[in-house]
Amino acid sequence: MKKILHIISSVKGKDSFSIKLADALIDKLSSVYRVENVHTHDLTKSPFPHLEETHLGSFYTPDEARTAEQKEAVSHSEQSVKELMEADIIVIGVPIYNFNIPSTLKAWIDHVVRAGFTFSYKDGVPKGLFTDKKVFLAISSGGVFSDGPLKNYDFAEPYLRYILGFIGLTDITTFRIEGMMMPEFKDIAVQKAIDSINNYEYEAMTAQV
Ligand SMILES: Cc1cc2nc3c(=O)[nH]c(=O)nc-3n(C[C@H](O)[C@H](O)[C@H](O)COP(=O)(O)O)c2cc1C
C-alpha cells in the first residue's frame, strides 16, 4: 500500500491550476497503485517559517543540548522530514511566481535539506538520505517553459530536480499546465496536461504491496 504526500504551494485554492493538476495526478496514481492514504500539506495555510538564527543554531546542536527555543525551532524541520519519510510518493504542486518557486516552497526546502540529517558528504560526494521514493512535480505557469523562447528561463524545475536529488529524491517526473497567459495555449493547456498524466507509463514500485 502506498502513501502519498501532497505539497500545495499555490495561494489560489480551488482556482489553482497546480492544485487541479496535482489532484488529477493523485486520482490517476490511486488507480495505478494501491494507495493507503494521501496526506496533504498546504504550505499556504501551514507554512514553514523562513530560516532564522535559532533554526540554524538548532540544526547544528545535538538534541540533548538544545534549549527549549531550539527544540521548538527544529520541530518544523523534523515535521517536514517525517512527512517525507512516511511517504512513498510525493506530489509537489508548483505555481511559477516570478520565474521561480513560491517562497513558501523554498522555506519548506530550507527545513528539509540539512547537512548530517537529510544529506551527508562522503569523500566529497553528497549522499542523500531518502531512497526509493517517487516525486511528481505538478507545475503551472502563465508562460511556456518546457520548450521555446522561455526554456532557458525555467529556473524552477531544474532547481527542484537538483535540490530534491541532493537529498536522494532522484526519481522525479514533471507534469505541466503551461501557457495559461498565452491565448494560443490557454484553451488547450489543461487537457494537454491531463492527457500527459493519462499517457504516462507508471512503473511498478519496488516492494509494491
Ligand atoms: C505573483 C505571481 C507571479 C507570477 N509570475 C509568473 C512568471 O514569472 N512566469 C509565468 O510564466 N507565470 C507567472 N505567473 C502566472 C502563474 O504561474 C500562473 O497563474 C499559474 O497558473 C499559477 O499557478 P496556480 O494556478 O496553481 O496558482 C505569476 C502569477 C503570480 C500570481
Notes on the protein architecture:
The chain is an alpha/beta fold and 209 residues long. It has a single domain, classed as Rossmann fold (3-Layer(aba) Sandwich). Helices cover 38% and strands 22% of the residues. The chain is built from six helices and seven strands. The strands form two sheets. A five-stranded parallel beta sheet has the order 2-1-3-6-7, with helices on both faces. Helix 1 packs parallel to helix 6 (183-199). The longest helix is centred in the middle third of the chain and has 19 residues, at 68-86. It is globular. The model has no long low-confidence stretch (mean pLDDT 95). Residues 10, 12, 16-19, 95-99, 140-143, 180 line the site of flavin mononucleotide.
